[in-house]
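Hi R.,

Here's the chain you asked about this morning:
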Amino acid sequence: MAAFTANIHSTADVADSATIATTTHVWHYAQVREQASIGDNCVVGRGAYIGTGVEVGDNCKIQNYALIYEPARVANGVFIGPAVVFTNDQFPRAINPDGTPKSASDWDAVGVTVHEGASIGANSVCIAPVTIGAWSLVGSGSTVVNDVADFALVVGNPARRIGWVGRAGRPLVDDGDGLWVCPVTAARYRQTAAHTLIELENS
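And here is the predicted structure, written out as tokens:
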């Protein structure tokens, strides 16, 4: 069995300038680039990539072979499934019109922002710039090209909202008159005229 150093597997490639909480585990062959930061109680799976300057909050799970390119921002409690990709180039090219190789100065990186508690299913692609709302759920294999609302359940290519989910991650049940109920916690939510969802304080 390969050795660990401060919860970082010996095969992982972690830049000296990266900041990783001591309660976080970085697994086999993962790469964490310069100035990236990862908070407490996170798991970075086998072969995952965390780009330069990417910020990851506390209690996040980044599963095997997920690719999180800079300048992504990931809030607390986010789940990123296996083989998820966050892009960062709106107009990708390997070369300039004159045939010279593109360098970092030839493009402006744009990022994916993920808010608290959101989950992104396996093999999904998030096309930056895009924001994934709090406690939302992106179904496996989806391609996200537009912002995702808080508590939204989106699937497909391109991803579209097909329902709502609560904090427990289960689809909410329509209770009539714009009210939705979590079948697990009985928490209640109200859908607004603007097609957003609000968690009720008395839930």
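One quick note: The CA atoms of residues 5 and 26 lie 10 Å apart.

Cheers,
M.
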